[in-house]
Amino acid sequence: MNGIHDMGGMHGFGPVEPEANEPVFHAPWEARVLALRRAAGAWRRWNIDAGRHSIETLPPADYLRLTYYEKWFESVIKLLLGAGLVTPQELASGRRDPAVPVATPPLTADKVMPAILAGSPTVRATSAKPRFTVGQAVRARGINPGGHTRLPRYVRGRLGTIECDHGAHVFPDSNARFEGEKPQFLYTVRFAARELWGETANPVDTVHLDLWEDYLDAA
Amino acid sequence: MSKGHDSDHGHDHGQDHEEHSALSETALRVRALESLLVEKGLVDPAALDAIVDAYQSKIGPRNGARIVARAWSDPAYKAQLLKDATSAIAGMGYSGAQGEHMVVVENTPSVHNLVVCTLCSCYPWPVLGLPPVWYKSSAYRSRAVIDPRGVLREFGLALPDEVAVRVWDSTAEIRYLVLPERPAGTEGMTAEALADLVTRDSMIGTAKVAAP
Question: Structure pTM?
Fold first, then answer.
């Protein structure tokens, strides 16, 4: 979607302001949001792409106003409601619907570090052959998908070069809609800064993105 | 956090009031959601504590600094790291969530790498921990790709025009770690001592490693 989250190349947000000696969390609730999102995710009722899309579909003004963990919190509520793990009545009252049996959490404390260390790799075996080879010229498609996509606006229609073949990875556009992983080849594509931003960009600078086959055409 | 759970049941109203008045609206909502999810058996509070502890005290930029220091000290390891970062980093015990597929990019006198995620805030958690606020900010996400040299100047790093700036926009599940240049004057230092020099920002690409 052409959402507010697709920020690459926008103007007007001011300087980058690093914070000296920044703590990992600025308040205890931020840590709880991180943990709640991960622990609730262990039910596997959504995936990382659906999770990202739930943030992207926050109202644009909210997206800009809310902090990172506030966005995560609003998104985890959307995901819990969407998955039916929590009902709107329960959310409003803060109390469990007694008609629903108490569940057993899939993620217990002893499983936390093993789960973190294992992660969720997205590479998939495939019998397909890659459509592109390293060094090949490609053009990012000038498409405007209404759902989740990882093809930013600032490269659409632009000419680049295949730099690396990462094998087949879960395709986020379909996965976010729960329409399957549909793995396809993922490539690092190199774009000259001048191709993206015009003549004022430094001629030796480049921007590199990881793009799936469905985002690319041979040039 | 169990204290909040108790107060939701109405015990000790005086303390309840005092506690709530000190908490933001968001903190109260988070606490209420946690209570509900625990009550429904959807999450285990001990697991929540373990997750917080992992990212608060176990997983952070010290991990990445050890990788960098070893690469500086051990040419065979550096070669492996640049060829297959995922396995080289896993060999040091760091792997998993938000670092399932790693790529290490090397800074040289003629190339400077900078990592960003314009679409959200993807970041290599196993080696750098959770991202700082500035990395997640609209200013950094919007500008790193169109004005990397301006962003770097704000971090105090002015690069000559002939140094190529390579920006890595983390649009998939590949996560990037910058291997900064080893500073002069560090010959003979142990990997442990070198790791103390390596900052988080130098592994994102917004800084160089300063000489000791």
Answer: 0.94
